[in-house]
Amino acid sequence: MNCLSFPAADGGQTADGGLTFCTSDGTVYENPGNLARSGRKLKREQKKLSRRQKGSNRYNRQRQKVNRLHAKVRHQRQDQIHKMTTGMTERYDESVIEDLNVSGMVKNHKLARSICDTGFHQIRRMLEYKWAQKGRKLSVTD
Questions:
Q1: Strand 20-22 to 28-30 pairing
Q2: Hey, is 139 helix, strand or coil?
Q3: What is the radius of gyration, based on Cα positions, of the chain?
Q4: Which tens digits make up the pLDDT trace of 34-59?
Q5: pTM of the model
Q6: Phi, psi for 100 (deg, rounded to 5)
Q7: Which residue in 50, 76, 83, 135 has a CA-CA distance of 20 to 30 Å to 61?
């Protein structure tokens, strides 16, 4: 029986700062940092938006550009998480995940953007429903 555990509290494989997921067999899932990679372009387009007059046609077009960039980041994150969680459900028979205090972790201003970009809630939600579909055991520890 294979077992998945991230981050492990028993001295085994652990998560690196909460942004890297490691399994008991040594498989490492890195956070691709989709928001960080698109950050420069997003910043530029939002700056253009702030300089437009609200309600104008150019403002609305620029707002649509910014919305498309945010949607692209969201879709990249969803795709990566779907691939990761599907691989985990196919490879392991049972899983143990840690219930993280994300709201407390976000208060660290140096890591907040990276933590939000990781999508912890989405990972947990996908793991729960995919493991339930396969009829396998998913445990949540505090």
A1: antiparallel
A2: strand
A3: 18
A4: 888 888 999 999 999 999 999 999 99
A5: 0.75
A6: -90, 145
A7: 76
